[in-house]
Specification:
single chain; Aspartate Aminotransferase, domain 1; Aspartate Aminotransferase, domain 2; seven-stranded mixed sheet; four-stranded antiparallel sheet; 15 strands; binds pyridoxal-5'-phosphate
Amino acid sequence: MDTSALLRALPKVDDALKHPRIAGLLEAHPRQVVVEALRAQIDATRAAILAQSVTDLDPEQLMADVVARVELGAARSLVGVVNATGIIVHTNLGRSILSDAAAAAVQEVAAGYSTLEYDVASGARGSRHAHVEELLCKLTGAEAAMAVNNNAAAVMLGIAALARGGEAIVSRGQLVEIGGSFRIPDIMAESGATMVEVGATNKTHLRDYEKALTPATRLFLKVHSSNFRVLGFTEEVELGQLVALGASHGVPVFEDQGSGVLIDLRPFGLPYEPTVGESIAAGAALVSFSGDKLLGGPQAGILVGRAEIIAKLKQHPMARALRLDKMTLAALELTLRAYLDPERALKDIPTLRMLTMSADESRVRAETLAAAIGASTRALFAVSVEPGVARAGGGSLPLAEIDTVLVALAPVGGSVVDLESSLRLGDPCIVARINDGRLILDPRTLSDAEIDLVASALEQTCARLGEKA
Ligand SMILES: *Cc1c(COP(=O)(O)O)cnc(C)c1O
């Protein structure tokens, strides 16, 4: 067909709307969306005809392209994925996943009215802080507590409430950046406090803090090096020493713990991290930590500390801007409740369960996955079960190498790159990693149901890749 014949053959929008495939689309999608997709497809085809990159017109194909366009536009953006990476608190994949109890509580308060700010006993207005404050006090030994949007918000609120207009002293070894735009010097500036840096990158002594004290000093800030370690010739001032120095000058210590653990994880072979309770016992006036890192709950920033300080934070104008919604509060309450019985917490909270899973259990899971992998996959890839390393992720426990057992797929005719992308673009999306030319799957971060799902996705993908080859 020549160009003008092709242009004449292009359907009109009104006619195309009567086509059975488009009429079917209109049942499930808004008319305006369908009309826009039709117009866009016709315009694109017209441009292609004029550019002579289209020499033939198939109206059925054009309608199929419109259907694909509408369905792509209607696809949900924020959806679940399967995490086969072995990175437990995977920031890009949503950090911690909730316990069943926490997820059920979110569903309940999301779909119905709730006691968010209602006191059932008196029938009067209640406080949204009440749902988590007592639990946090019980679990950390603090006098008072509150929770805000995330730990970055908690740090900002803490500094603004305690040191705005004054000076806050921080060690040069702790001027950390935690992903993107969260840097301690910037947060300090935004909070309205003047940052006074002391010590050197690798070493800060108590006398450095002492020399920096002035009548304008309002705060000692101690930031946990969550996502990195300075190794070698290093020294940091212990929290207890800083508390003692502060006490003799009326300066409180605010510790940003970052990950924030409530249970000592050393018995499970993980490195020592001070627990929130230990920092409170050592005299920190205020401690902040994330809800969705090692705690294993929803995104939140938790603040625990002395009663008069938490009262000040609650009354600060910024508190309203940073406050938590009911769904997060429900998830946080149920996550914290699990910690009342640490054994239960280790079992019920997915982040803790995956972090503390024994190498034996992870071997059983890897062998289960390998055994479920079928013939189409094995025709293209050699499957092996082998020891490897899992990571806490999320900037937590950066040096921890968690012994795990992996399933590796080495190509024997198949393409690892094609396999990885097919899994990723599938439904559901399965995220795996490629290492040394092999596809690596770590069942530590998979649920039991997901182990079967990954095996069958592999089989479907490889059956398709095998046909193409
Ligand atoms: C992760 C982290 C933060 C930020 O916490 P978010 O909950 O991600 O906002 C702040 N400080 C430290 C030390 C951290 O590790």
